[in-house]
Specification:
This protein is an alpha+beta fold. It contains one helix and four strands, in the order H-E-E-E-E. The model has no long low-confidence stretch (mean pLDDT 87).
Amino acid sequence: MSIKQSLYLNFDLEVFNTDELNEARNAARKSDGALYCWKTTGNSNWLEKGLSVSDVLGIVVLPQGLPTQIDMLDDEEESDA
C-alpha cells in the first residue's frame, strides 16, 4: 500500500529581477537548471516553471525534474498598529 506524503525542501537560490532575464537564462544554462517565476498575488506565493509576465516578483533557477508549480509560504498578515 502506498501513502501520499508532502516533502519540503530548502534551497539557497538567487532571485533575479524581472529585468535580469538574460542573467537568469545564463545561470540556468550553466547549471542545467530550469527557470521558474516567483509569482505572487495577495498574500500567496508560489514558483511556476517557465516564464510569465503577470504577477511575477522575480525569476529563480531550480534543478530539472521538479513540479510545474511549487507552493511557497504565504506572506504573514500585517497587524494594524
